[in-house]
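Problem 12. The chain below contains 403 residues. Write out its predicted structure in token notation.
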Amino acid sequence: MKTIDELIQGGVEGKRIFVRADLNVPLDGTAITDDGRIRAVVPTVSALAEAGAKVIVASHLGRPKGAPDPRFSLAPAAARLGELLGKNVSFATDTVGDSAKATVAALANGEVTLLENLRFNAGETSKDDAERGAFADRLAELADLYVGDGFGAVHRKHASVFDLPARLPHAAGYLIATEVGVLKKLTAEAKRPYAVVLGGAKVSDKLGVIDHLLEKADRILIGGGMAYTFLKAQGYEVGISLLQEDQIPTVQGYLRRAEERGVEFVLPTDVLVAGEFPDLKTKAPAHPTTVAADAIPADQEGLDIGPETRKLYASKLADAATVFWNGPMGVFEHPDYAEGTKAVAQALLDSPAFTVIGGGDSAAAVRLLGFDENAFGHISTGGGASLEYLEGKTLPGLAALED
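Solution.
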């Protein structure tokens, strides 16, 4: 795929360049609680603006149902992007309407604007090719060139991700180039031992990646809510812990395959349990109890890996040459259940391995728990996109950038 550097070398002064970013940041009202995805697109936007382009940034935020919804406005992202760039970022209050047209027309060379949430138009996410294409046609009227830099959305066959690049000369931004390079190091170029840490709520979210990594990884460590389906598959009582009963046969099949292939599956040996889910707003003390993983009381819920498991997981990561981590080990948003996730993050820092944090909640956890992001090999901006790439799937947004 063509790079942004090639685009700039060809001359972009005065050109209107549509940059598809991923500014899908968490909001508390209008306050951005994690600006990592905005910071990730700054190098691309800055380089284009400095080269004299008229930069049109566009993104989605949340899941509005194809119509304007003030809860999902990108106005806070425009303000924050402007702060990070050190220049004013104008804001269009629609996507392809009068405001977008007027705002783009007013751009001088080197200036930047942000369009309102693309998902306020039903054509962005439509499964109907014609409807999606019609929206892409209207977006294309705003620009001369296209730069794809929203890695967190490249697994979606959406108008601004898949259809629009077909209508304009296109290139990959710095973020996408970096993400793809890193993911190649986890697939075709992984150094061994290769350890994978998977957490999060549901086994079903990780089925494809587990299936694929069974052919590539040396050891797979399991935590988070998905661990209880694995423990149940081994015949253990898991109380009222998160459980996907329908996935137990699949999980048992994975455990058998891992044994046959010599892949080490590492499951919790102890867990923190409580009788109810913690209050994440007040952060009131939860008073959990530590129990063996095979002795969870019937009226208790597992909410984090225990101290012995933390030590075990750290030891399994200590000699790794490559580590991929996706998904927290527990309810990290509450201090009483953050130690498991914190221990994995620290183990990655202590390891000499090339470490990749696969976006989503694990990336948010690293920031929330106060770790230095730059100390890790790479923190991905796209949890779902990273997982689908590791599953070996073709990602529509990447395919669209190929020449």
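Discussion. The mean pLDDT is 94. Students who got a different answer should revisit the alignment rule from Section 12.3.
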